[in-house]
Amino acid sequence: MTARTWVSALTFPLAALCAGPAPAAEDAALLKDLTSVIALLGLPCGQVVSAKRQAENDHIATCKNGSRYRVFVNPEGRVVAQKQ
Q1: Amino acid 10: pLDDT
Q2: Contacts of residue 53, Cβ cutoff 8 Å, sequence gap at least 6
Q3: Which of 11, 34, 68, 78 has the greatest count of CB atoms below 10 A from its CB?
């Protein structure tokens, strides 16, 4: 599968996880999803250790290596990660 296919496949689960406050188990799943998205986009991270929800489908992810990314779904429906 190509990176674009994976990113598209993760869009819906990411959207579902971002819908509201999540219990601890869902938080772990969100961190794992954000880690996967950042890796598939080819950005250095290693592992997402925390995430702060900005809005629906919009998070600030903090990586184990100290990098921070804003991960969100753009108006075209694609998942994007911008270095902060």
Answers
A1: 57
A2: 18, 59
A3: 34
Beta strands in the chain (DSSP E): 48-55, 58-63, 68-73, 79-83
Query: In this predicted structure, what is the pLDDT of residue 51?
Result: 93
Helix (H, G, I), strand (E, B) or coil at 43: coil
H-helix or E-strand spanning residue 27:
helix 24-40
Range of the domain at 7: 3-83
pLDDT for 83: 94
23 within 8 A of 36, measured Cβ to Cβ: no
Total of domains in the chain: 1
For 73, other C-beta atoms within 10 Å of its C-beta total: 16
Residue 79 φ/ψ, nearest 5 degrees? -80, 130
Return the structure tokens found at 72.
Answer: 């969100």
